[in-house]
Amino acid sequence: MTNKKGFTLIETIIVFAIVIAVAAIVLVIFTQNFDAWRLEEGLTQTNSTKRVAQAMIYRELGDAGLQDDDLVGLVGLAVLDADGVEVAAGTPGTSVVFQRPQLPNVSDLPAGEEDQNDDGVVDIVDALLFFPDTLNGLLWTTPITIRLRNEDTDGDLVLDVGEDANGNGRLDRVIERVQDNQTRIIANDVITLNFTLQSIQSRLLDVAITTQRRLDGPDGTAVQDTLTFSLALVN
Questions:
Q1: Quick one: average pLDDT of 121-144?
Q2: How many domains, the chain?
Q3: What is the pTM of this model?
Q4: Within a domain: residue 3?
Q5: Which partner from 105, 125, 156, 167 sits 20 to 30 angstroms from 221, CA to CA?
Q6: How far is the C-alpha of 101 from the C-alpha of 140, rounded, in Å?
Q7: Structure confidence by residue, pLDDT tens digits, 155-178
Q8: Is pLDDT larger for residue 62 or for residue 8?
Q9: Do 151 and 130 belong to one domain?
Q10: Which of 59, 84, 67 is nearest to 149 (CA)?
Q11: Mean pLDDT along residues 205-211
Q12: Which among 213, 214, 210, 212 is positioned nearest to 227, based on CA atoms?
């Protein structure tokens, strides 16, 4: 006859308590690691947004004309406030309007002057030969605007009634490039954009971009970060 002895009630309670304690510890560790991963992922995405915007702004504004030149039809760079009014140097604004040097087109060549180098081919080389001062700024683009368009008026990251200004069904928080009535989005998830021209003499333009993004998950946590940099205006 075999004597089999099972767990007593107290032993069973102790085992269950240990299992529950271990499970709770594992859950805490998992939650902490998951939250850290979400935060890192969110910061990576916001940082990527800022860097893309920075690269585009450098490319667009690096050769912008700073001061008016009526001789060549240049209207100098202007920093504007939220109402579209130009602000003085040293005062931040939310958008900037400027012009860039523009390469000539073959179509700009007058009749009889097309083949400047007599090679039998009419191309950009001929246009540059006819307009030798182009790269010094004698031809300029039409005005270009870089601006912030943030529909999230209350800052809750939710598309509320009346916020969808363009009716596209999305909560737009974007940096836009506008030229000749054509609009292109440079960056998303941007909540503030500031331009500050230090002074005409310094030729330095300060830029500050703040991005904000909601993390994946049910708690609605959001991360935000700000990038500031300066660029020198060479024209």
A1: 69
A2: 2
A3: 0.70
A4: no
A5: 167
A6: 4
A7: 888 889 989 888 899 899 999 999
A8: 62
A9: no
A10: 84
A11: 94
A12: 210
Which strand ranges, in their side-by-side order, compose the sheet holding 144-150?
A: 78-80, 95-98, 144-150, 173-179, 182-187
Residue 72 has pLDDT above 80, yes or no: no
Residues 69 and 145 in one domain: yes
- Structural domain of 154: 31-100+141-232
Q: Does 120 share its domain with 211?
A: no
- Between residues 34 and 53, which one has the greater pLDDT? 53
Question: Is 7 a member of any domain?
Answer: no
* pLDDT-derived band at 122, boundaries 50, 70, 90: low
Give the per-residue pLDDT at 71.
74
Averaged pLDDT, 41-65: 79
DSSP conformation class of 135: G
Residue 135 contacts residue 111 (beta carbons within 8 Å): no
Cα separations (Å) of 22 from 15, 16, 19, 67? 11, 10, 5, 70
Based on the fold, state whether residues 128 and 228 are members of the same structural domain. Answer: no
Amino acid occupying residue 38: R
* Cα torsion angle, 180, 50, 95, 229, sign: negative
Counting Cα atoms < 13 Å in the Cβ hemisphere of 17 gives 6
pLDDT (0 to 100) of residue 117 = 73
CA atoms within 13 A on the CB side of 57: 29
Tokens matching residue 193: 């954009």
Residue 203 burial by Cβ neighbours in a 10 Å radius (0-12, 13-18, 19+): middle
- Are 152 and 94 found together in one domain? yes
Same domain as 69, residue 54: yes
Helix or strand holding residue 126 (H, E) = helix 124-130
pLDDT at 137 over 90: no
